[in-house]
Automatic annotation (TrEMBL), chains A, B:
One of its GO terms (cellular component) is cytoplasm. Signal peptide: none annotated. Its cofactor is pyridoxal 5'-phosphate. One of its GO terms (molecular function) is ornithine decarboxylase activity. Pathway: Amine and polyamine biosynthesis; putrescine biosynthesis via L-ornithine pathway; putrescine from L-ornithine: step 1/1. Residues 27-45 have a biased composition (Acidic residues). The modification N6-(pyridoxal phosphate)lysine is found at residue 159. It comes from Adineta steineri. This is ornithine decarboxylase. It catalyses: L-ornithine + H(+) = putrescine + CO2. Coiled coil: none annotated. Keywords: Lyase, Polyamine biosynthesis, Pyridoxal phosphate.
Length: 534, 534
């Protein structure tokens, strides 16, 4: 497989985003599966040889990426028992086959051809939107994590995608969980049962907790949590006096897409106040945590944050406080895609080098982290249908005349009374489009990430009734299914003439999408199709 | 009651909004219940006399509003049988008492005192957020509708709040339903059962329908739908040939808070194309519908839209088309509050006058409408708790020094690398605040309406452990409960020093709030407390 030449023959990948400034290089790339595969599933000559050695292939996939990026594999090799993981992955594959009907798919098969096959297999009258979930993705990401950051135990941030299948895979492989609410904990409890080691494998990673939630974590046997303000220490003293508490540090997160430091974290001075109060209240402070913000674009922020943590570790053990910190939680912020710059191996390298210098293994500090997007993002593909269409024909384009006839009837003209310029320009874009499509997921569903997560979606299409082979592109608008005009996914993208029933699909929609979707207007993608890439 | 003087003694009503431009007069007012009541529940002298004649009081309440606004009651009196409605309301009251444990509350009791009582009655360790639902509100709004717009049958827009209790009240009183998806229909089916008249009391009011949804409406016996493009007519021809179809017109909605005309509606020229195609396909076109946009601020838009509808009615019956239009659907856009300008009676007056001129009763046109917000908005109050707090003390304020010490550690300084100016100013506001509160509902929950519905929320507080009577106000930030920093409800409002466990409550949160809320991070307001105001 590694000797194979991968021709990328994408049908179409226009960007769909409201924020023009975000058209970065990374959007030009498809998901990692596609990078390793051909688009044309009929071209069997180019398919990789199928093998059942799942783990071997997983590692090979990572090796390919590494090789492309000029990394020396041995240099950062993990010490985790690979044999055991290989066994577990094989077991998981069997489990999900029987439990969720996960279909095995050749590793080399492209997402495009998988989508096409899934659509073919559905009843012809089915026009529901659905997610394709590649379960092996989570296992592969776990392997990659252990390969590059073997010293750091990953606690999956459940919030990024609280789907039970992700929790199941990661729990099986040995991962821990970052839960931020009683409901997230209950989810893990439901999946992992009573025998799960809640003391060591769960962190209640919310610095501002409600008392009823504290009670539920405490009763479940969870021990670790974080704190960043004085009120919270007092609250813990009363309601969770035996908790193992990490100081949540405020970091520089200006280079992250979703910064957190406006909301959480204590700066150095506040840490000193907290150390003093914790000593007075006899709170069991055991270490530090930080979070460089979601999708961190600068690995040096980890470096700087680690240095700050080192400083707080040192201050904590001074005579005034006498805390012996033993846990360091480096939070999340990791991208879910190896084509992101900086790539995961690059970020890992910076972290490892810094750790080796200021938190060497010999010190015996327990290292942990809270990756969410890293695991969940690449695992899901959204498949939607064009449910309705509006061709902007001559009648429409000659709208202006109607305005005269009916006084103020049309919205074409720009007006100072309009709410703001942005909405004016959006209107103008929609107005000047050639074709308007309505699909069955939108801004209130998966695409909420355009608003809440600054996500840039990549759209692909499949013509189902492909009677028109024309490649002519038209300026198109894509609306979501609800009655609300804010529910617009793309104001202006180039697409060929598509029909009702044709497919628009969107790769890498696994994080902060379904997790934050609402059921507004009765529309929500609820159907899942599971695959396991061999 | 109508002779009573109502003193308004609000504790505090700072506005919480990101859009400064929206601080209109209407925000200075509390909900209608409060307008009719005193805030101090201990002052029994000022309480209205309790009576069991529910309907009488409802009508009296409307009479009060009308009287204040100088309306002549007889002039617009409805012809609907009041006796029957009175009986139904009384039955509903009994039904909800047994079914949902709805507590009876004196009509004159203020929302503030109801919230206080609800909090007192909860177990002391309960810190969940909840909604207080005033079920009689829906009945009262229905009465008001029939009083002012008796000619127009209201079809409740389920999307604004798909709670079963609203559907139940309105179905019982005789209302119809505007459903836009198969799931909304299924909800009405579940509540109203098989005997409900789906042909006459449901409209599938979505101009861009998926085929699977069409099938479900058709199979349920629904007959009415709307159309605004050629593809949809072709789709109906194939999948719902016997539907009664309304042409959805494109209107001028520039004066509405949420315009729809960028997404839906056919202009006059397109209507002519559609009439021609419908004749060719033998589609049963029966009338027109329009929607002036959500929260319409200019009643003249109804007037203009009605004139346009009249024109299309006339064109439709020309020899070329020969359609005999008999149904006119005037859509939604009605405010849920009588203090809004224009008020509901004012809007109703314009509509009635226009209808009398161009669609007189003698013509026998069936008039319908799709109010959502009108019914749902005022029925719900959100009660949240302060679950965590951060006092910005000296250590925090002297943050600047830390910046020097730790190079780039703090986010205080403004930087050209920051994403945009808006987020800079938000950061600065948060940074300069005196106190930061975290409550248990936020931007991903009820407050999604700040983003999606341009809603301005009004906040009230209740000190639970009221040991500090100081009225000193501090610049405060209110964050929602999730880990995301975007989850900020108010960047800068004045509040006194509040404690963890104190209550922030928000009236009139019934429309486009819970309907569009997600469960992100495991936080969502799911608890409801029901009351019935006698």
């Amino acid at each position: 497989m590694s000797d194979k030449q991968h021709n990328r023959k994408e049908t179409s990948k226009p960007e769909t985003s409201n924020s023009e400034s975000r058209k970065a290089d990374d959007n030009e790339r498809d998901n990692e599966d596609d990078d390793k595969a051909d688009d044309d599933d009929d071209n069997n000559d180019e398919q990789p040889v199928r093998t059942n050695l799942v783990h071997e292939l997983n590692i090979k996939a990572i090796d390919d990426i590494l090789h492309d990026q000029g990394h020396d594999l041995d240099e950062q090799a993990t010490k985790v028992d690979k044999r055991r993981r290989q066994f577990l992955v094989h077991e998981l594959k069997e489990l999900f086959e029987s439990k969720l009907g996960a279909k095995h798919v050749d590793y080399g098969q492209s997402t495009a051809s998988i989508v096409k096959n899934c659509c073919k297999e559905l009843p012809s009258d089915n026009d529901e939107s659905f997610y394709i979930v590649n379960l092996s993705h989570y296992a592969r990401q776990y392997h990659q994590w252990m390969h590059f950051l073997g010293r750091i135990h990953p606690f999956y941030a459940v919030k990024s995608n609280p789907s039970s299948f992700i929790i199941e895979v990661l729990a099986e492989l040995g991962g821990g969980f970052d839960c931020a609410s009683a409901e997230e904990l209950a989810l893990v409890q439901k999946i992992c049962g009573d025998k799960f080691d809640y003391a060591k494998r769960i962190i209640f990673a919310h610095p501002c907790k409600s008392i009823s939630h504290i009670r539920q974590f405490r009763d479940a046997g969870v021990q670790m949590t974080v704190v960043d303000n004085e009120d919270e220490l007092t609250k813990l003293k009363e309601h969770w006096p035996d908790a193992k508490v990490l100081l949540r540090l405020k970091t520089d997160d200006r280079h992250s897409m979703s910064p957190f430091s406006t909301k959480f974290g204590a700066n150095e001075r506040e840490c000193i106040t907290l150390l003093r109060l914790a000593r007075k209240l006899n709170i069991n402070l055991v270490g530090c945590s930080f979070h460089v913000g979601s999708r961190c674009l600068d690995p040096n922020l980890y470096k700087e944050s680690l240095k700050l943590a080192r400083r707080i570790f040192d201050i904590a053990q001074q005579d005034e406080f006498k805390f012996d910190f033993k846990i360091l939680d480096i939070g999340g912020g990791f991208s879910g895609h190896n084509w992101d710059k900086p790539s995961f191996p690059e970020v890992a390298k910076v972290i490892n080098q810094t750790l080796d210098k200021i938190f060497p293994e010999s010190e015996g500090i327990t290292l942990m982290s809270e990756p969410g997007r890293y695991f969940s993002s690449g695992g899901m593909t959204l498949v939607t249908r064009i449910i309705a269409r509006r061709i902007h024909n001559l009648d429409y384009k000659s709208n202006e005349k109607i305005v005269e006839l009916n006084r103020k009837m049309s919205y074409v003209q720009s007006s100072s009374e309009n709410e703001n310029e942005k909405s004016d320009s959006e209107k103008a874009l929609i107005e000047s489009a050639d074709n308007i499509y309505y699909i069955n997921d939108g801004i209130y569903g998966t695409f909420n990430a355009i608003i809440f997560d600054h996500k840039v979606f990549i759209v692909h299409y499949i013509k189902i009734n492909d009677d028109n082979e024309s490649c002519e592109q038209f300026k198109s608008v894509v609306f979501g299914p609800t009655c609300d005009s804010i529910d617009c996914i793309a104001h202006s993208i180039n697409l060929p003439l598509l029909n009702i029933g044709d497919v628009l699909w969107f790769p890498d929609v696994g994080s902060y999408t379904s997790a934050c979707a609402s059921n507004f207007n009765g529309f929500q993608t609820k159907k899942y199709v599971f695959i396991w890439k061999n």
